[in-house]
Amino acid sequence: MKPSPDLSHFGESTSLGSFMPGDEELAYRSSTRTNMFDACHVGVVLRAVLFVEAVVGVVAMFSANRPIEWLLRFSLLTGGVLPAVLAWLVVVCVLKSRLNRLEASRQWLCGMALGAVSGLYGCGLLVLMGLLQPAPLWSSAAAGALLSAMMLAGLFWRAKARTPAATAARLAELQSRIRPHFLFNTLNSAIALVRAEPAKAEAVLEDLSELFRHALADPAESVTLGQEIALAQHYLAIEQVRFGERLQVQWSLDPAANLAKLPPLLLQPLVENAVKHGVEPSASGAQLKISTLRRGSSVVVKVTNSTPAGVGERGHGLALANVRERLALLHDVEAKFKTVFKDGVFQVRLEVPV
Question: For the whole model, what pTM was predicted?
Answer without folding.
Answer: 0.61
